[in-house]
Amino acid sequence: MPQQPPLSVEQRQRWLRFVEEHNPQIDPRSLRLMDELRMVAHLLYQINESSLTDAGLSYAQYRILQVLLFIEQTSDDKTLNPSEISRFQGTGRNTVSGLIRSLEEQGLIERELDPADRRKFNIRLTATGRQLVTQHAGRHLQIVDEIFRVLSPEEMEVLSGLLGKLNRQALEWREHAC
């Protein structure tokens, strides 16, 4: 689906004046930045999704496989339980459960009972899942690198710091508001 072009300079100025008139206490630049962040995040999501079409995976499925590969290669345990996957993904447990089920049906992961607690189960990659995530990781990471290469190393650091600051503020606000 083609992305709508961003607002023209004139449309953006009219929008800012509109917001100022109706909400004089609000800095309209905040809304503009939120919109720009949303547009970039949405475009990156679409790019990530399309880069995995050949693999037959959604980006959310791919991220689970990628996390499992990371744990397999860096941890003694080599498995994660659904709650741990949920924390890694920043996604709700119900969403992760559905993704796990679909990946299991495709033969990309397998469940095994937790030997320490037989009420729980752990998730691990199958050989097919390992091969698929390894095969597509290079292309996926190359796309991300090409997109962010428009920024200098200094700009990347500044952006990272600013996004971290916004993330902390949003988390703090959510904790107090909810």
Q: What can you tell me about this protein's structure?
A:
- It is a single chain.
- With about 180 residues, the protein is mostly helical.
- About 70% of the residues lie in helices and about 5% in strands.
- Strands 1-2 form a two-stranded antiparallel sheet.
- α4 (about 80-90) crosses α5 (about 95-105).
- About 15% of the residues are buried.
- The model has no long low-confidence stretch (mean pLDDT about 90).
Please sum up the structure shown.
The chain has 178 residues and is mainly α. Helices cover 69% and strands 6% of the residues. It has 2 domains: 1-51; 56-138, Arc Repressor Mutant, subunit A.
Reconstruct the topology from this structure.
Layout: H1 9-22, H2 28-51, H3 59-74, H4 82-89, H5 93-105, E1 109-113, E2 121-125, H6 127-148, H7 153-177
Antiparallel strand pairs: 1-2
Key features?
178 residues, 2 domains, mainly alpha, Arc Repressor Mutant, subunit A, two-stranded antiparallel sheet, single chain, 2 strands, 7 helices, 69% helix
CATH superfamily of the largest domain: Winged helix-like DNA-binding domain superfamily/Winged helix DNA-binding domain
> How many domains?
2
- CA gyration radius, whole angstroms: 21 Å
Beta percentage is 5-15%
